[in-house]
Amino acid sequence: MPEARWITTDSATLAEHSLLPLTGPASIDVFTHLLTRGPVPRVEIARATGLSFAAVTKAIAPLVDAGVVRELGAARTASAAGRPVNPLSVVEDAALMIGIKINPGELIGVITGLTAGIRAELRIEPAGDEVETVVAAAAELVTRLRAGAGALSDRVIGVGVAVSGDVDSRGGIVRASARLGWQEVPLAELLRQRTGLPVLIENDVRALTIAEHWFGVGVDTGSFVIITIGTGIGCGLHLNGDVVEGAFGVAGEIGHLPMADSERVCSCGRRACLETVASSAAILAEIRAGTGKRRLTWDNALRLAHAGEPVAVAAFEQAGAAIGRAMATVVNLVGPEVVQVVGEGVADFDLYEARMRDEFHDHVFGAADRCRIGTRSHSFTDWARGAAVALLRSVVLSGGRTKYLTM
Ligand SMILES: [Zn+2]
To answer: pTM of the full predicted structure?
Structure first.
């Protein structure tokens, strides 16, 4: 396996520290603003957070002392008030996060700086999907990513792990993951024991939504929905300024809305779920059945559809229509400003995007139709980065400590 390649962008001299020196609610607000909107001058932070200039300066001081925040450019002061006007910026490498996405037969790990820039990434294939095997592989991934960070390795503040399925983030337990065949796995504790680092586990789609909240579409919108298409159909909700977690840790399970006209059994064991017509496995099964080509691969199914083979075209259009109806359902219920559809291989969106949009517009109600729909390709690295951001957000919102983490 290749060693992690380390990309350094910031050579600032840093004070010794272990976690982020956040001293209270004002400090958390100021630091969050800097993380997600920086670089910004103090006066702008004061305006955005509603704090006084003096309160902002007080909140910033411990972060500057610790080398987590620095002033950009030569010292300048505005003549009228004698206040410093240089923008403040987060020092990207002052603290590092590791993010891991667990898939069947594959783990993808990234190490990121404070504003989620990926410094290095690694992929590892465990011998199986048994819990012990996967935990050992995840621990090896952490060791190699830290080794790649060299002298900065002690700045890793923890590990975020993204898993598909029903994940109890606060309890650190994967309650059920159909794709991995896991039930009631205390994953955070198992990985903490192996790595000695704080661990946060999160549902993969929610982790992606958290990353979008801080470093993606959420920077400009108060409410958005992320829909992920591929092996499963997921949905992350960000409403009224926060990510929806659900009272029991489950929310946005659009893939299991009972709205498909199909006899196929879903990965969750139920029938009529959206995923039984719209997941990549369902599309492939439909094309195999319709063409009689039982061993057809996904790549060849895509080729058939792009070449206009009627059965393949119809399977993708059926999936697009079902996703469009599900999207209208979500938008009619919660009324977001933006829906971002993400999936692997943006080139393939043309196979179902038109039907998806038509069906959405046919079923969306009234002014909710103003919701902007975007499509974007992503990779499994984005899932791992989402896990790293989920960890960071948990640390920052709990005041630099690790309230929801397994330590
Ligand atoms: Zn289902």
So the answer is: 0.87
